[in-house]
Specification:
Layout: H1 9-67, H2 73-93, H3 100-108, E1 113-116, H4 117-126, H5 128-135, E2 139-151, E3 157-162, E4 169-174, H6 179-183, E5 190-201, E6 204-212, H7 213-232, E7 238-239, H8 240-255, H9 269-280, H10 282-296, E8 301-302
Parallel strand pairs: 1-2, 4-6, 7-8
Antiparallel strand pairs: 2-3, 2-5, 3-4, 5-6
Helix pairs in contact: 2-3, 2-7, 2-8, 3-7, 4-5, 8-10
Length: about 300
């Protein structure tokens, strides 16, 4: 009988290695499965935390809005009427008096300065760097006497206003919307214009995007009212002296009778009389101060030397 053929030991070795390889792969697949579950769990927890945070943030914001005192409509009305009337008055007269309320109104209306054309040219001819810091890129109210009415090679209309001496000139480039007004302007007439300072070119003081002041008045009132709304909502900080003045007007408006003449003409004689009588009323003044304190808890006031935010 023939001897059975022996199996080579390498067969067993290779079989064992194959089994280990299969077991190893299985183990890795199992590990990968556990890892994926772990990642999914972490992602789920993270999403839950983020959702809880958003809910808490919304809750906190809602609580803050709930605890914030509501604005007095009558106070807001008087404040907006006063600022609007002051802006109209200053723009219409093209000047500001010592009344700080007019300066405040012009600032809220987006204007940085009120100046005569001769003074504008004088500032530039005296010190161009200093003048640029005051006027360039800023909206300003300029008054002057018309010397020329013309168009440049690009078809842009402009007025030349008389400067501070014989050969000084201020060139005011016009907005397209103001061309019809310029078409009927006369040399030697006086004009009030709202322009953007443009610096100096070839010894000529320049103004850009000019429009007649009465055309800008409606824009000014709208911008001033928006600025008041932003201040009252606590979105925009205002320097303390101005802020306290606005708070005082608001608080007085909240306590004045609804039929007060101040709601018709904040700068009229009847309103001035009503304000004097109001300040003599100790009880009314005390109530107004309480209203003012409530508003101070909402608005943002800053010191004069604090940088703008």
């Amino acid at each position: 009988m023939s001897e059975a053929k022996k199996t080579s030991p390498w067969v067993y070795i290779l079989a064992a290695l194959g089994l280990l390889f299969v077991l190893g792969i299985g183990s890795c697949i199992a590990c990968f499965g556990v890892g994926a579950v772990g990642v999914a769990s972490v992602a789920g927890v993270g999403a839950e935390i983020r959702e809880n945070f958003k809910t808490q943030e919304s809750k906190t914001k809602a609580e803050q809005e709930t605890t914030r005192p509501s604005l007095n409509e009558q106070g807001v009305r008087l404040l907006k009427l006063t600022i609007s009337a002051a802006a109209k008055k200053a723009i219409g007269e093209a000047k500001v008096n010592d009344e700080s309320i007019e300066n405040a109104a012009l600032s809220m209306a987006g204007l940085s300065a009120v100046i005569l054309a001769p003074n504008y040219s004088f500032e530039y001819e005296s010190n161009e760097i200093s003048a640029d810091q005051m006027f360039k890129g800023r909206m300003i109210l300029v008054s002057g006497v018309v010397e020329e009415i013309n168009k440049d090679i690009m078809g842009v209309g402009y007025l030349v206003l008389k400067g501070h001496k014989n050969f000084s000139r201020v060139r005011a480039s016009l907005k397209t919307s103001s061309l019809s007004r310029a078409a009927v302007a006369k040399k030697g007439s006086k004009v009030h214009m709202v322009c953007k300072g443009k610096g100096m070119m070839l010894s000529i003081s320049m103004l850009d995007e000019c429009q007649f002041a009465d055309e800008y008045s409606a824009i000014a009132v709208s911008q001033a009212e928006n600025a008041i709304s932003e201040f009252l909502s606590g979105n925009v900080p205002v320097v303390k002296p101005l802020g306290e003045m606005l708070i005082e007007i608001y608080a007085m408006g909240a306590e004045l009778p609804q039929d007060s003449s101040c709601f018709d003409d904040p700068f009229g004689n009847l309103c001035t009389k009503a304000k004097r009588e109001f300040k003599k009323d100790a009880a009314a003044s005390l109530r107004a101060e309480k209203v003012a304190d409530e508003l101070r808890g909402v608005v943002k006031l800053k010191e004069l030397d604090e940088p703008k935010t």
